[in-house]
Design goal:
Number of helices: 0
Shape: globular
Distance between the termini: 7 Å
Length: 130
């Protein structure tokens, strides 16, 4: 796909309601072509979680990633053509968004809402092209 191509939106009936990932003293990675559920929970306790959404398939409307990071690291890569809303709360940690490409989302693009907390850990959301 080119950087200006729209995100892949699939019919709502093919989108799972809930899924999640747990990194407990370990590392997990999710990348490639996958379907983002409406609610995806990530818990990282003294572990590392990496989610690459550059080739993700989403349902129309809003999807939500909820993060709990305790003494760990969560890194999420998001393409610029998805509308992004971030609300994170660090406590002796960090919750940050970095952009390496300009926003290319349209008003009817799917919305990704990322919320959560980082307790003595780091949550990084990187916005970059496909």
């Amino acid at each position: 796909m080119t950087p200006s191509s729209p995100p892949v939106v699939i019919p709502a009936e093919f989108v799972p309601d809930r899924r999640g990932a747990l990194a407990f003293l370990s590392s997990i990675s999710r990348e490639g072509d996958w379907i983002l559920p409406r609610l995806f929970r990530v818990v990282s306790f003294m572990g590392n979680a990496e989610l690459d959404l550059t080739n993700v398939r989403m349902g129309p409307g809003e999807s939500h990633i909820q993060i709990r990071c305790i003494w760990g690291n969560v890194e999420i890569t998001v393409p610029p053509d998805i509308r992004l809303e971030v609300d994170g709360h660090p406590l002796a940690g960090s919750f940050e968004v970095s952009r390496s490409t300009p926003n290319a989302s349209s008003p009817d693009a799917p919305v990704l809402r990322i919320t959560g907390s980082a307790l003595m850990g780091a949550v990084t959301i990187k916005i970059k092209g496909r």
